[in-house]
Amino acid sequence: MMQSFDITIIGGGMVGLTLAAALKNTDLRIAIVEGNKPAEDLDLLPDVRVSALSRASELILRNVGAWPGIERRRLSPYNAMEVWEQDSFARIEFNANNLGQPNLGHIVENRVIQLALLDQVSKQHNVTMFMPAKCQSMVMGESEAWLTLDNSQSLTTKLVVGADGANSWVRQQADIPLTNWDYGHSAIVANVKTERAHDSVARQSFSPMGPLAFLPMSEPQMSSIVWSTDPNRAEQLLAMPDEEFNKHLSAEFDMKLGRCKVIGERQAFPLKMRYARDFALERIALVGDAAHTIHPLAGQGVNLGLLDAASLAQTLVNIWKEGEDIGLRSNLRNYERWRKAEAAKMIAAMQGFKDLFEGDNPAKKLFRGIGMKLAAQLPGAKDEIMKRALGLKGELPELAKALNYSHEL
Fold this sequence. Notes:
It is a single chain. This protein is α+β, with helices and mostly antiparallel strands. It contains 11 helices and 19 strands. Strands 1, 2, 8, 9, 10, 11, 17 and 18 form an 8-stranded mixed β-sheet that branches. Strands 6-5-13-14-15-12-16-19 form an 8-stranded mixed β-sheet. Helix 8 packs antiparallel against helix 9. The protein starts with a strand and ends in a 20-residue tail after the last helix.
């Protein structure tokens, strides 16, 4: 049986579901194809994959109705941030009160975000879920695309959206080239219990081996770590017994929170920059990691993806209201220019940041120390840095600007 849709989103993760949820008040017929159905029950121990949601992401998720589902499950606001370099006077601190903000963001497990979005999307009259299911083939026609799923279901659609992650099947099928490079790091993620409470402060230290972030979780002595280091060292750290790993971690973090104890599993994944040459083609659009991946040292990857979803939704609503074809590349060019520019700025900023803190050359260390001290003391400099981190600067979609926008669609 053939089913027809206006939009078929390949990937039912955080970004793909946000796009569907952002289109809830339209008559656009939406299919979501996702290979894995997330487990609904949360363990006492948080998942190791978490995101630092910016204010812009919070607004998007509030506007699509997903935020109460996140609050009902588990989240951890953080009220301050400390960044420093080992064996240097380079240091800067940020505080929500000084910026007139209720907090600086929230640390949330990726699965919690996905489940809260699924709550909303599953209630939408205009969404059909194919979960679990995977695409087997995609054939492009002049006015629609044909998709075949692994359950023998066939779909036609005016637009295919690749929201299927860094190794995007959609991007590969469309033969979209990538600009990419290896950051030369792997990121270790784990849950860590610390001797002292984190006091809802996000902390990041830089050493010649790479950055190490402690992200505060809902329990006062539990943090999620992101430890970026060279791949060989990451392998060695993963292979260590817990006790030995704990000693290395505590020392690397300057004993800031006392002794550290890893709880549960440790995972590592390679860090690569990816930037698709095209974010939109005829009948195809890419969002999130399918379009771009960046270094996690500032925690902006998911935030960038959620802004993609909100921006594409806004573009599609405008095209739809004008009675135009949502699958034409010429109609999607505004989205492509908009998000390619924002992604390029973020990629450049992360690369510059990584290069600045790489190595232990004394001249570079002095420069870093002076730079951080000036940023901390110059009037308005810290505010500007945090406004960008909060996602309150740049060309933002309407969903990221104010509450209740989604009710106007």
